[in-house]
Design a protein that fits this description.
37% of the residues lie in helices and 13% in strands. It is globular.
């Protein structure tokens, strides 16, 4: 599948809710901590994001999770966030130790934050318009 070639062993794709301020903040947090630019981004709502979701059999109506496409595998919710942290510059890979917390508990916390993200952090009417420096990291 051509869409699955968008990520390689060196590059993974992070799909985010493009109108969510928390998700936009996650992108702004990741970029300076990923100096080798191993993570690329696409809004879930974008043409590329929708195509990737379809290619991987994901429900494009489900905008409550960050999605990590890594080595042909789909990670969502807390597993996606922890695997993203593992790819960042030290000390952030240490956060991967939270993988030892049972998945249902981690995901319950993740879902609680996701459910309240617009209320707590706000949202935009349209997807994030990245700066030219950040734009090169978007698909």
């Amino acid at each position: 599948m051509e869409d699955q070639k968008l990520h390689t062993k060196e590059h993974s794709v992070v799909l985010i809710d493009g109108v969510c301020h928390l998700c936009q903040g996650l992108v702004r947090f990741i970029i300076p901590r990923d100096p080798k630019a191993r993570l690329r981004f696409a809004p879930l709502q974008s043409e590329t994001g929708l195509r990737l979701q379809q290619s991987y059999g994901l429900d494009s109506g489900q905008l409550s999770t960050v999605v990590l496409l890594e080595n042909g595998t789909v990670y969502t919710e807390s597993a996606a966030v922890l695997r993203i942290a593992r790819r960042l510059r030290f000390p952030w890979p240490l956060a991967y130790l939270f993988i030892l917390v049972p998945g249902p508990l981690r995901d319950a916390v993740y879902r609680y934050v996701a459910k309240n993200r617009y209320r707590w952090f706000g949202r935009d009417e349209q997807c994030l318009m990245p700066t030219p420096d950040i734009r090169r990291r978007f698909l």
